[in-house]
Amino acid sequence: MYNVMLVDDEEEVRVAIEKKINWAELGFIVVGSAGNGFDALDMALERRPDVVMTDINMPFMNGLEFSKQLKAELPTTKFVILSGYDEFEYAKEAIELSVEEYILKPVNSDELCQLFSRLKVRLDDEVELRRNLENLEKYFVNPSAKDNDLVEQAKAYILEHCSESDLSVDKICSQLNVTPNYFSTLFRKKTGSTFVTYLTDLRMEKAKYLLDNTDEKAYIIAGLVGIDDPNYFSYVFKKAYGISPSKYRQKKDEQ
Does residue 71 contact residue 44 with C-beta atoms inside 8 Å? Predict the structure, then answer.
């Protein structure tokens, strides 16, 4: 059921409209009525109607001003303007407010039933669209959670196996059961680093720790961090820290 609110300074008009229509049969329920824009605004903010049918010519605050203020608070509410004034300026302002329907008094029950039948279709379509968008959002949030978990698994695997010289993207992908292309793209997106750069940085941190805390030779440390070629190890270390492993240790020993 969709909520409807009736706003008209003539009480007999509001009562007649409410009684002329089998609202439940059309999929609506009248949740309130008001005789002026000020009362209507407070009531609408409290009851949050899906549709408001309002007269234009009312005391204190006319229907268009009321619609404008309410639309700023409840942008999805639909408005039906009911007026005895067939004037272009009213219609123009109603269009600017994105009013759904603009009808002239007096209205009969058949006209009102047709109008609310049209509104029901539009509301149903919007509900379906919102539902589809929400499902789509949930779908993307769910793969995102899985992607984050996948990257965390990859990082844990790299940390555990970084001392293995044959550690590669293919080896990790085989473990995680994903394609190398997908993994490489995802890993870079989530970490801001390529697999090779991430692994190299990890190995250099480990090498620096071993140089600081053990007496192992540089070529032994190279093997311990998964680099078989001592010369390449020295090159990578110097690129990372601006100094060769041997000079790094020598400088440390001098301190």
Answer: no
Please identify which residue in the block is written with the tokens 């006209």.
111
Angle at 186 between CA 185 and CA 192, to 5 degrees: 85
Instruction: Choose the weakest-confidence range: 30-34, 123-127, 135-139, 227-231.
Output: 135-139
Nearest CA-CA partner of 8 in 66, 57, 44 = 57
pLDDT tens digits for range 36-46: 888 888 899 89
What is the rounded CA–CA span in Å between residue 70 and residue 42? 9
Query: Cα-atom radius of gyration of the chain, to the nearest Å?
Result: 35
Residues 6+ apart with CB under 8 A from 18: 6, 30, 33
Show the beta-strand stretches assigned E in the chain: 2-7, 28-34, 51-55, 78-83, 101-104
3-state secondary structure of 240: helix
SS3 129: helix
Q: Which domains does the chain have, with CATH numbers?
A: 2-107 (3.40.50.2300), 197-254 (1.10.10.60)
Q: Is the pTM of this model over 0.70?
A: no
